[in-house]
Amino acid sequence: MGLLDKIFGNYSKKELAKIEPIKNKVLELEDKYAAMSDKELGEQTALLRTKVEETSLDDVLPEALAVCREAAWRVLGKKPYPVQIIGAIVLHQGRIAEMKTGEGKTLVACLAAYANSLTGKGVHVVTVNDYLAKFQSEEMGKVFNFLNTSIGCVLTGMDKSAKRDAYNADITYGTNTELGFDYLRDNMVIYKKDKVQREHTFAIVDEVDSILIDEARTPLIISGQGDKSTELYSMADKFAKTLKPVTVIEMDDKADNDLLDGDYIIDEKAKTATITKSGVKKAEKAFHIENLMDAENMTLAHHINQAIKANGVMKEGVDYIVRDGEVLIVDEFTGRVMDGRRFNDGLHQAIEAKEGVEVKRESKTIATITYQNYFRLYGKLSGMTGTALTEEDEFREIYKLDVIEIPTNRPVIRKDHPDVVYKTEAGKFDAVIDQIVECHEKGQPVLVGTVSIEKSEHLSKLLKKKGVQHNVLNAKYHDKEAMIVAQAGKYGAVTIATNMAGRGTDITLGGNAEYLSLAALQKDGYTEEQAVEAASYSNTDDEEILKAREKYRELYKKFDAEVKEKAEKVREAGGLYIIGTERHESRRIDNQLRGRSGRQGDPGESTFFLSLEDDLMRIFGGDRITGMMDTLNVDEHTPIQSKMLSSVIESSQKKIEGRNFNIRKNVLNYDDVMNTQREIIYGQRQMVLDGEDLHEYIVNMIKDFVDDSVNMYVQGDIADDWNLVGLKERLNGLLTTEDDFNYTPEQMDELDRNEIVSTLQERAQKLYEAREKELGSELLHEIERVCLLKVVDTKWMDHIDDMEELKKGITLRSYGQKNPVVEYRMEGMDMFDAMIESIREDTVRMLFTIKVRTNNAPQRQEVLKPMENHHNMNLRKRNKDSNS
Ligand code: ADP
Ligand code: MG
Q1: Ligand 1 in reach of 569 Cβ (< 6 A)
Q2: Is 325 annotated in some ligand binding site?
Q3: Among 50-64, 245-259, 338-352, 427-441, where is mean pLDDT lowest?
Q4: Residue 125 has pLDDT above 70, yes or no
Q5: Which residues, in sequence order, are CB contacts of 444 under 8 Å at separation 6+?
Q6: pLDDT above 50 for 192
Q7: 81 in contact with ligand 1, CB cutoff 6 A
Q8: CB proximity list for 75: less than 8 A, separation 6 or greater
Q9: Mean pLDDT for the chain overall
Q10: Are 415 and 285 in the same domain?
Q11: Residues 579 and 693 both lie in one domain
């Protein structure tokens, strides 16, 4: 096996070989475009667009990439390396490019986006946060502007018209959250002009593992005000606090769990809380009910379940934090606060009750989609990240994406030391501190990764005792994140971070000139906003900003020289030293941490310090670890070397990765049921929005409604069995009056079913024709449109909420043999059919009865009135001034 084979999987190597000739073509074109004037180069876009129309994008790709490459060189002073061209080709092919941190993925996306924008159909570049979206779109925007290609950036809280402009641009930057919400909001508008997005043609997802895997467990939800009370949460919480929990590492299915001495069992491995018989008894007594498991007590049972989970399993500082009276989710993978997201299923409220903050009113889900299904909307999807290979299967199975590992521009010379394992956690932390002190003394910067905020703070305390100056970076200090991370490579810097905090920010050795300049500007009296504006590439004529920009440039020059000099010293000290303090559940996250060192051929080191008391070992290591604990005759400060340990760690991680994959698949399985339905409803909405003439459709609806009504009450041939009273009641005030169907027995004998149908059909038709005369065709057709949308939306929102309830119910009731997803699909289909029928009924009723004020001109407001509840929606992600 050659060296390449060893470093890269065979698959990537083969695929790279196929890409090689395209890359070479791009490189060969360098001279051609270098010879062009700026103007000429800028004009290439129009030429290439025509060429794409005449041939195909694949044919034009090399030229497009070469043009963009030359433009990046002229505008930004950065010439994309050959590996970056390969990355861009991989993206263009709709795959995942695995490229390490610092390889310049931002520029890779720029190349691929430019080439694909030539079709005129719009390209979305997806980032993990607003800061990155803004920064990248402005920097790369310079290149796009130069190439006469329009660029937009969608940010949280932007108004609709600004968003629409951004989406109409050739290339649009935005976060996964905002894009997903815009899609959902677009499917709630009444007029087509209110939509902001165009079609979903091509997306490039940056940090693709974070977005398509880590975030994929929590769907996007838009919620409206619900009418359910919140009192029960506090009651359930008070009750749960009286219960006695018992903690086990893993629940044993075969053992009789009720024999355990406790009211509920906390399973550390599965992160669940299960009530025992004694707990159930106490609940029945406390809430004065006979049987908690009765169907009528399902709501209470659900609240109690969530309360014991909140109290027994969910931990402050690990799973969530409380800030300003609000419970905020902490992403277990990134350590970030997930602003505006809430645990679903009432768990969030249960935690609010537990923490004694205001329990937010239970809201009603009115629109929802998973990231999986949102991103599957794109005709072509691609992504990039430093760490994708461990999740290759999932990308392939869920998104049909393959992962191509792209070699680094320069060889990685970072030294990854083997794990060092201690018997106790205390012993481990002592060793970590020693290592930090050792590095610190010779000026080698250290980045320490921890798995939780709690551990970060613990470590910080230990360092304080030693008098080592350091920065702590975790979800609680999210604002300054980028700034602190950027300085983590300074001579002698010590930075503690929860996993992957500050993703997307590059750690350059010696410090970061950009951030130093920013800080200096602020010291000079500029506000943070002004400073950022000065550092950005945004277009402006503002004198103040232009002046600040000049100042920024000067500062930058000065700091850049300083940083370069200091970088040399840091290199001599060994480069950035990465310390892991615990293995994460996923190997990918560990790799992510290591990868922050050794960028672009820099020196660096990494070591993971572990202990047998770490959660991963304790919970997933099983008996082998416990046995080892007992028999090992070492003190807590002696590291244990063991092959067995390494394999236990690796296999534990694989196990958890598999389990998490299953959790995500399960979320998806449920959403797939909804997705089929969502596609039907959104498709029909689109048809209405597109202004297709609905009149005929409505006339048929009326016919079906009459048929359905008769079928419901008039079955069989025997008139005596018919329920004419029922039929009359159903249609009363609409098509029938009290005087109808008052037949004598003799008349009944003569009665023909078809006659009833045709009489009613005729009445309906006449009535509707009369409406058309009364209102005029134009107005009636407008009313038809609005009524249909209004009814569809109301019913659909109720339906979504019902489906949520159904899901809760099904997961509660079916532990046994039945596959809950299948149950959910079947019952969900019935509910969907029932919804369609009731949409028909309500639309017809509304059209027959709606009153329109016709003093002079017809008043449109009156018609629109029922729609008003649209404005009561609030996003579960709190967009402060979004105008949905
Ligand atoms: P990644 O996202 O892969 O970690 P970034 O896109 O953040 O990397 O780029 C890291 C740094 O390298 C940035 O400062 C960027 O401007 C710089 N860079 C990227 N490509 C080049 C290039 N071809 N030449 C010079 N500098 C580059
Ligand atoms: Mg990046």
Answers
A1: no
A2: no
A3: 245-259
A4: yes
A5: 492, 570, 573, 574, 575, 576, 577
A6: yes
A7: yes
A8: 142, 143, 146
A9: 86
A10: no
A11: no
> Does pTM top 0.85 for this prediction?
no
Tell how far the Cα of 98 is from the centroid of ligand 1, in angstroms.
15
Q: How far apart are CA 158 and CA 142, in angstroms?
A: 22
Please give the share of the chain, as a percent, with pLDDT higher than 90.
47
Q: How many CB atoms lie under 10 A from the CB of residue 238?
A: 12
* Exposure string for 630-646, b = 16+ CB within 10 A, e = fewer: eeeeeebeebbeeeebe
Amino acid 479: pLDDT = 53
Task: Please tell me if the CB atom of residue 410 comes closer than 6 angstroms to any atom of ligand 1.
Answer: no
Tokens 């009276």, residue? 325
Give 618 or 96, the one with higher predicted confidence. 96
Ligand 1, pocket-test mutation among 101, 105, 107, most atoms within 8 A of CB? 107
Q: Does position 856 have pLDDT exceeding 60, yes or no?
A: no
Q: Do residues 137 and 204 share a domain?
A: yes
Q: How far apart are alpha carbons 207 and 384 in whole angstroms? A: 6
Domain co-membership, 199 together with 262: no
For ligand 1, atom 12, the nearest C-alpha belongs to 104
Distance 108 CA to ligand 1 centre (A): 9
CA dihedral 23, 27, 30, 33 (to 10 degrees): -20
793 and 870 Cβ atoms separated by less than 8 Å: yes
Residue-level pLDDT at 177: 92
| DSSP 3-state of 319 | coil
Please identify, among 361, 394, 427, the residue that sits at the C-terminal boundary of a domain: 361
Q: Is 278 helix (H, G, I), strand (E, B) or coil?
A: helix
Same-domain status, 623 and 580: yes
Looking at residue 18, its pLDDT comes to 96
* Minimum CA distance residue for ligand 1 atom 17: 104
The domain total for the chain is 5
80 pocket-lining for ligand 1 (C-beta < 6 Å): yes
Enter the tokens of residue 797.
Answer: 């929102």
Residue 28 resides in a domain: yes
**207 CB under 6 A from ligand 1?**
no
- Asked if 238 and 141 sit in the same domain, the reply is no
5 in any annotated domain: no
Query: Which atom of ligand 1 is least distant from the CA of 80?
Result: 23
Residue 474's CATH number: 3.40.50.300
Across residues 168-186, what is the average pLDDT? 96
Ligand 2 centre from 387 Cα, in Å? 12
Q: Residue 585: phi, psi to the nearest 5?
A: -60, -30
pLDDT at 883: 36
Does ligand 1 come within 6 angstroms of the Cβ of 595? no
Question: Ligand 1 center to residue 261 CA distance, Å?
Answer: 58
Mean pLDDT check: name the lowest of 82-96, 786-800, 870-884. Answer: 870-884
